[in-house]
Amino acid sequence: MTARAPLELVCPAGTPAALHAAVDAGADAVYLGFRDETNARNFPGLNFNRQELEEGLAYARQRGAKILVAINTFPEAGNPGPWRSAVDDSASIGVDAVILADIGLADYAVRKHPGLRRHLSVQAAASNPEAIRFYQEAFGVKRVVLPRVLTVAEIAALNKKISVETEVFVFGGLCVMAEGRCALSSYVTGVSPNKDGVCSPASHVRYEDQGDRLVSKLGDFTINAFDEDEPAGYPTLCKGRFVAQGRASYLFEEPTSLSAARLLPELMDAGVTALKIEGRQRGRAYIAKVTAAFRAAVDAVARGEPAPDLDLGAVTEGQRQTAGVYDKTWR
Amino acid sequence: MTPKQRTAPPFSPVLLAGLAMRSLPPVLLQPALDAAMTAIRRRRPGLFDRISCLENPRFLIDPVDLPFAFILVPGPENPSLRALRKIDGDMDAEDATATIRGPLLVLLDLLEGRTDGDAQFFSRDLAIEGDTEAVVALRNAVDGAEVDIVGDVLSLTGPFAQPARRAVDMAGGLFKRAHQDLEALRASVISPAMRRGKAQADRMNKLEDKVNALDRKRRKAGAGKA
User: Fold this and answer.
1) Which one of B122, B133, B145 has the shortest CB-CB distance to A232?
2) Residue B83 in contact with residue B105, Cβ under 8 Å?
């Protein structure tokens, strides 16, 4: 096998410490968000203020890494201010790219800051050549983060029909819905990842220790009940275990994490430019461990070696992994 | 809220040390706790900025392998940490915003960012109760602060910091060996019970498969009649 240029490794950071961990572990780029509702990980105590972003950018630049700022929620009607400020500040601080979802905000960015590189967020759910070409032609988007609904073969076919870069998720939380369009969290809590930047907000989550089982609740809904020795998962509706016809089962998806490490050669062959690791809400230990593992895997695959097995089971949701739709076997 | 102790303590040197400390009055721990908070506040002044969104939070930190629990009040001006003895029932009387419960070493790993809180939660080594938002905010604040509890406390000793660090590292090595020895002892003691348990679990699984097969058969028969 011949050596090829490695795929770009894009890693998450929710705090400056996590950013340092990602860069030190070999991230080519780090994506992050501001401390407000303009990004899809608006969790309490998470994210960056402007000064932290400046310092983080300097840290990354000194070590040859890029900084991408996610401004990937949809502005509240009549209140575009925070989203526009996020774009303006990203431009003035000099980040490498912004990751956008809303067409109004993309229009604002291209008009006000034509030199600021624009990526299309997974929240825009652009998954076909026509949609992607529209974002490219109208807003000069250079890269599209693909929704986790395409097989590797579909990604390869898509890449032949478009001329922008594509970035795909390879590890972490597995959103099984059409991202940017999912209303499950909003239905239960009134708060959504699309407008408020948080799915199943912690403010609406309760864990109840019922002796022999752990019960997770979101708002008024029981999401799951875990037996004493059963690994737990996030309290999201899409990974809830519900009783239907007298039987408790996972109706949408089980608590599990995406891991496409073994598909890296195929993703490279499919024309993908960058690999994304999910988990801005995770601790820096997770970020250091996952980034280092994928750094080694990406470099091995670039040298023409097979993708190594990654020992990441302990950090996965429900302590289980899946290749998700990339390796679709149920159609 | 009256938190219960559900997470079984691991068999470790911490558990044995905790048993030996059962009769120790918590007030004797207070100078060490005060010193730790002073050191952290001095070296990580922005630590609690990230939880400024919370109104007067009080966290009950419950190491399941110690006879003590701790109340953390992370006010930005004057954060405090206070020990209380579980056996006195003091813990139940505390009106905590949230409880974080797990083995001491897991809690220390979390404090110093050596492990990921979500991963510990998925594996059930860590349990939380109460206000989940407060716990998430605290986790993010602590994880983002790059706390080095030993280094922070030793910084108070001035010129003695370096020799003290060597002594701590040596103690850490001894602790690690004791931990490995106890783990081997535990595995040896429970091995027969584990074998019996596995045999029983296999039998249960076979019975469950049988019941499920019968259930499917009954449903099919019912559907046929309809």
Assistant:
1) B122
2) no
Query: CA A117, CA A97: separation in Å to the nearest integer?
Result: 5
A251 touches chain B (CB under 8 A): no
B143 vs A203, A255, A283: nearest CB: A283
Please answer whether residues B70 and B115 qualify as being in contact, where contact means their C-beta atoms are separated by less than 8 angstroms.
no
A2 in any annotated domain: no
**A contacts of B53 (beta carbons < 8 Å):** 44-45
Structural domain includes residue A179: no
Mutate to test the interface with A, among B55, B114, B143, B194 (most CBs of A within 10 A): B143
Residue A22 CA neighbour count, 13 Å, CB half: 35
For A26, half-sphere exposure in the C-beta direction (CA atoms, 13 angstrom radius) is 16
In terms of domains, do A204 and A147 share one?
no
Smallest Cβ distance to A283: which of B116, B129, B135? Answer: B116
Fold adopted by B13-147: Nonspecific Lipid-transfer Protein; Chain A (3.30.1050)
Same domain, A80 and A192: no
Number of structural domains (chain A) is: 2
Element holding B104 (H helix, E strand): helix B104-111
Residues A67 and A129 in one domain: yes
Alpha-carbon distances, residue B22 vs A18, B25, B72 (angstroms) = 38, 8, 21
Residues B132, A46: C-beta atoms closer than 8 Å: no
Residues A136 and A91 occupy one common structural domain: yes
* Residue after which a domain boundary falls, among A250, A275, A304: A250
In a domain, A273, yes or no: yes
Contact A214 B139 (CB under 8 A): no
ipTM value: 0.91
What 3-state class would DSSP assign to A217? strand
pTM, two decimal places: 0.87
Interchain CB contact of B145 with A (< 8 Å): yes
The boundaries of the domain holding residue A239 are 184-250
> pLDDT tens digits for chain A (331 residues)?
577 889 999 999 999 999 999 999 999 999 999 999 999 999 999 999 999 999 999 999 999 999 999 999 999 999 999 999 999 999 999 999 999 999 999 999 999 999 999 999 999 999 999 999 999 999 999 999 999 889 999 999 999 999 999 999 999 988 888 888 899 999 999 998 999 999 999 999 999 988 889 999 999 999 999 998 898 888 999 999 998 888 889 988 888 899 999 999 999 999 999 999 999 999 999 999 999 999 999 999 999 998 888 989 889 888 888 888 888 776 5
